[in-house]
């Protein structure tokens, strides 16, 4: 409702002003309730932990400030290795995962061998735990003696790419199959080839439908790059292991964990933002 002012300038009516005031009061009330409940929760959990009989031992073993400061430089240097592995793996997974998704979406009996190969690949690497893939790639392939001297970091990256490509391929395929068939028919009726239809019409729409799932998989990969330490690569986890062995204290693992959390937080918040934005966009116009 609007009330025309004498000078022709728009101004909200009394009813609209009352509605805005009510919404502000409800918003303030919700923020206060959330703040109070959060403080109460933190106090109760903190009291339960600090009053436990073994807290002093845990504090000395896991939260030693001197050990944390001493191990921080080496753990941070190891984290840079994880970041490099993550960048290479993300690019490689995007390429290989998209290729596998396209192969699985091919139609016609002539493409059956390619579809079967892509299906076997995704079923195999989605079924094998990443840790076992790391052992097989990191220790099995070098034992063949045909690759020469290859850094263990590279073998770890290969194992991560093999595993996560299978996950990403299935997510992308689900998005591509969610595109309405009329989109393909319309594209072909305009004279586009099958490849052009996939590249211009299907894949962009399919990716948009599964963006939150793709970003969640990326967050999972961010922390799983720390598993390359089992091959002997001196990353953040391995550096923490070495520092813990030297100090007889577990605090370096906490330092590594906090660094991984700091690395993942921006992507986690971005994932939440994108998911909420897509949900709002889907609900637009749905309320009658």
How would you describe what is shown here?
With 288 residues, the protein is mostly helical. Strands 1-2 form a two-stranded antiparallel ribbon. Strand 1 and strand 2 form a beta hairpin. Helix 3 runs antiparallel to helix 10, helix 6 packs antiparallel against helix 9 and helix 10 packs antiparallel against helix 11. It is flat. The model has no long low-confidence stretch (mean pLDDT 87).
Descriptive terms for the model:
single chain; 288 residues; 11 helices; mainly alpha; two-stranded antiparallel sheet
Q: Uncertain spans, ≥5 residues at pLDDT below 50?
A: none
Number of helices, counting only DSSP H or I runs of 4 residues or more: 11
Helix amount: over 70%
Radius of gyration, in angstroms, nearest whole number: 27 Å
* Helix and strand element order: EEHHHHHHHHHHH
Distance between the termini: 19 Å
**β-strand number:** 2
Q: What is the mean predicted local confidence, pLDDT?
A: 87
Give me the secondary-structure category.
Answer: mainly alpha
Oligomer category: single chain
Major β-sheet profile: 2 strands, antiparallel
**Percent of residues in beta strands:** under 5%
Overall 3D form: flat
- Order of strands across the main sheet: 1-2
Question: Quick summary of this structure?
Answer:
The protein is mainly α. The protein has helices spanning 14-50, 55-62, 65-105, 112-127, 130-143, 152-178, 181-189, 194-209, 211-224, 236-247, 251-283, and strands at 2-4, 10-12.
